[in-house]
From TrEMBL:
GO biological process: jasmonic acid biosynthetic process; oxylipin biosynthetic process
Molecular-function annotations in GO: 12-oxophytodienoate reductase activity; FMN binding
This protein's UniProt keywords: Flavoprotein, FMN, NADP
Family annotation (InterPro entries): Aldolase_TIM, OxRdtase_FMN_N, Oye-like
Signal peptide as annotated in the record: none
Domain NADH:flavin oxidoreductase/NADH oxidase N-terminal: 11-143
Cofactor: FMN
Descriptive protein name: NADH:flavin oxidoreductase/NADH oxidase N-terminal domain-containing protein
Cellular component GO terms, alphabetical: peroxisome
Sequence similarity: Belongs to the NADH:flavin oxidoreductase/NADH oxidase family.
Coiled-coil parts of chain: none
Gene3D superfamilies referenced in this protein's UniProt entry, alphabetically: Aldolase class I
Organism: Cannabis sativa (Hemp)
Amino acid sequence: MAESISPMGINLFSPFKMANFNLSHRVVLAPMTRCRAIDEIPGLALAEYYKQRSTQGGFLITEGTSISNTSAGFPHVPGIYKEEQVEAWKKIVDAVHDQGAIIFCQLWHVGRASHQVYQPNGGSPISSTNKAISKSGEFSYQKGHLSRILSLVPWKPMKFLRWWRIIVVQP
Ligand SMILES: Cc1cc2nc3c(=O)[nH]c(=O)nc-3n(C[C@H](O)[C@H](O)[C@H](O)COP(=O)(O)O)c2cc1C
């Protein structure tokens, strides 16, 4: 297969300086939700997954990682808001660093793309808007093994998180 080289001699395997990080190549792991973090703990399966994808000077972005217990819109996504989760992430980061790779955590709160089955006590999802998600957006919370159950659960309207409440909830 012919190697693809740009007019400037840059290809996927050319080094790249990304702010303070010196990447050895340009093959990056995009963030991909894997639904493998049982009870939201990024365990051994994730450590193995990220380690397998680590290379010297490579760059990885983690799957979307919940910043609170109201953030998820898929089952078994990892969190990073409890001590136990942070400790589990440290093992993953160490495994990635041991291979010489760089990893960024993708923080997420899915807002109105959540569903009450992912919320504490089955409450309404918290969003920056009180407008319902579009039909195509409903796909995100119906995907995964809960989809059959979800189609039986009546949809709850959003809890609109107004800006003054956002300030109140910040530490
Ligand atoms: C299984 C799967 C899970 C994904 N999970 C996330 C995610 O957690 N966060 C995110 O920003 N994008 C997620 N994406 C989107 C990918 O990061 C990527 O942007 C998308 O697949 C388009 O890539 P492409 O432009 O190379 O086709 C996911 C994609 C797939 C296929």
